[in-house]
Design goal:
Helix content: 25-40%
Low-confidence stretches: none
Structural class: alpha+beta
Number of strands: 6
Number of helices: 3
Radius of gyration: 21 Å
Shape: elongated
Largest sheet: 6 strands, mixed
Strand order of the largest sheet: 3-4-2-1-6-5
Order of helices and strands: HHEEEEHEE
């Protein structure tokens, strides 16, 4: 890893989450407005427009709430400094080797699966709740993390920890 600035990664993640949160809040507001719009008022006992619109509004509000919680948790993240030999914990920037490919991950408490490009390197966020995040917690450089096959007959997936910063 060409010494990627972890603060720049965190800043990029916050910016991306803020943008997604604003979109989610707008969609939630639009869905709520649509659910209460007079065109969605039931015209009979079998008319489900209002019910369906309220389900959409509830789902959009839930998504916005989840995004807001993730943004708050990421905004409060304290970046740790990982010395050589340190065990992997939240805020670790990781370089892993899997199937002869170098992969970069940022272990965060929320917002797993986000993809960022910082200093020309693609980095994916990973949470401890994910199978890979769970397997990596507590490991250190030089260790391997193994994940079970996704389907019967597939090999065990092995990730070599190349760098922790």
């Amino acid at each position: 890893m060409a010494d990627i600035d972890k603060k720049a990664v965190l800043t990029a993640l916050k910016l991306q989450l803020q943008t997604e949160l604003e979109r989610a809040q707008k969609r939630a507001k639009d869905a709520a407005d649509g659910a209460t719009h007079e065109e969605n008022r039931a015209e009979g006992d079998k008319d489900m427009r209002a019910t369906e619109a309220s389900y959409v509004a509830r789902g959009q509000a839930g998504r916005a709430s989840d995004m807001e919680e993730a943004f708050v948790r990421i905004s409060a993240l304290e970046l740790l400094d990982f010395k050589p030999g340190a065990r992997i914990a939240i805020s670790a920037l990781l370089e892993l080797l899997h199937d002869d490919k170098l992969l970069h991950y940022f272990l965060v408490p929320a917002a797993g699966g986000e993809r960022l490009t910082v200093a020309g390197t693609e980095i994916q966020t990973l949470t401890p709740q994910s199978p890979l995040g769970r397997a990596l917690l507590g490991a250190s450089e030089g260790d391997e993390a193994e994940l079970p096959p996704r389907q019967p007959g597939e090999p065990v997936r092995v990730y070599e920890i190349v760098k922790v910063s």
